[in-house]
């Protein structure tokens, strides 16, 4: 158990609650170890994921505002484990902070539900990667040596929404693209650098323009292989869906397959959490050591 | 004290397929990338090829890649972009190289021409017309192709994709009240890849004019849906996703997937099965947020 526990309004996101439930499982398994107390808010709705915006831009901002108001009522910052939820909510936050008319309009909508956003400047949406990075020194003390990942070349996969658009990110101006590596190093493990780590996995068009999506996904593995990576780790369940689930569509039988971990699974393995508690058995591309 | 940095330039001779790097030390203080390139050409190698005109961030001709990201040479200070004392200059991506930092830019112009970026109107302009602020996006664009260079979909979709700058131009005309393109314009955009953008935001990130390109594409998509278009996988994806959220407060993976793919879902069965074996099954009934009925009120009434 970590020395200090900090409370967060836990926002798993729709994908984490269904297809990628092992992400939720592993997050809950590591939380107390890394000083996070997850507070569940069953009223939390979808953030809109940048999809609702394309049908009804106002609805997406209102959905996020409702989630902000629910967290504000408890006086808690929102913690997400999904890069897309993080990006979508910080986009809405950016609009609500810069456009007083939008804020007034959503507050009017929420009146009927007894919700109100009182202090938009106090709303915080933080991704797990940022929380862990803040406290990376304590990871050094907590990590086991050796652990099941010792000696492996670990390729962090940031993807898009954690990084871009950087003007809307809460840590705007900081070099986000060192955080993953620094966390891996704090665990006493070996990160590999490769150009694909900040590129697109193709998820958003995986069912829309399959040819383009597969070409993007295929590139990511070629780059990881070029860097002699053994294993990938991602901060986004949507990236995980394609990196893990669709890997066999873009890699031939003879080509190397990469196990893909969720960020909390990486932490869990390094901290000695039982593999079964991390849901590793739910991955299509198997993990064995 | 003056700062010296190492300029690393990717060189390629016309007709050659291979490239090589040339390194040179320059004083960085107060200098832009373009200043350094001119100095190199004047004092080190007169054959160094690059493009530039206005030196003021207006003509859009000087875009190149600086330490791995597209920028305007004339508006980028060496001191602001150096990493550990190095500045690596390379030609834009997604183009064939003509020579050194000069690319063959014809595909960029062709991709933009494909969306017919001019006012479609057979009437004269007898009346003053107030144009909405979105028009500013298109008029701010200096056609520098930085976005085209960084767009990952562009890289894997060399035809049938107008690209970020094309969408920005289209958005400008769709928003312009004098334009009579309406639905026809949006239909044309659908054939030019409107639904293939993967939301990577590389374009918005590099645009030297800070144009919200991702926002423009999202707006074009919602206008296409409002006009009754989007009768394709892209439009269905958005519509089914949104339907689930409105109904239960959460997106429903099963219906989003089934609605998007239609009968083609049979092609996804092998992947679906491999995931199902591992317990990754999107159930048709999906999840529900507590007090999700209330969420419906957040949507425009015509979607209800
Ligand atoms: S949208 Fe921005 S990056 Fe793209 S061509 Fe126009 S000015 Fe350049
Ligand atoms: S020289 Fe004209 S934009 Fe740089």
From TrEMBL, chain A:
Cysteine-rich domain sequence ranges: 8-89, 155-244
GO molecular function, one term: oxidoreductase activity
InterPro entries from the UniProt entry: Cys_rich_dom, HdrB/HdrD_reductase
Pfam families on file: CCG
Superkingdom field: Bacteria
The keyword Cell division belongs to this UniProt entry's keyword annotation: no
Keywords: Oxidoreductase
Gene3D superfamilies, per the entry: 1.20.1050.140, 3.40.50.11810
KW Oxidoreductase (keyword) present: yes
Name recorded for this polypeptide: Cysteine-rich domain-containing protein
Source organism: Candidatus Wirthbacteria bacterium CG2_30_54_11
From TrEMBL, chain B:
Domain 2Fe-2S ferredoxin-type: 3-93
InterPro entries to which the protein is assigned, alphabetical: 2Fe-2S_ferredoxin-like_sf, 2Fe-2S_ferredoxin-type, 2Fe2S_fd_BS, 4Fe4S_Fe-S-bd, 4Fe4S_Fe_S_CS, Beta-grasp_dom_sf, Helical_ferredxn, SDH/FRD_Iron-Sulfur
Cofactor note: Binds 1 [2Fe-2S] cluster. Binds 1 [3Fe-4S] cluster.
Molecular functions per Gene Ontology: 2 iron, 2 sulfur cluster binding; 3 iron, 4 sulfur cluster binding; 4 iron, 4 sulfur cluster binding; electron transfer activity; metal ion binding; succinate dehydrogenase (quinone) activity
Coiled-coil region(s): none
CC cofactor: [2Fe-2S] cluster; [3Fe-4S] cluster; [4Fe-4S] cluster
PANTHER family per record: SUCCINATE DEHYDROGENASE [UBIQUINONE] IRON-SULFUR SUBUNIT, MITOCHONDRIAL, SUCCINATE DEHYDROGENASE IRON-SULFUR PROTEIN
Similarity comment: Belongs to the succinate dehydrogenase/fumarate reductase iron-sulfur protein family.
Protein name: Fumarate reductase iron-sulfur subunit
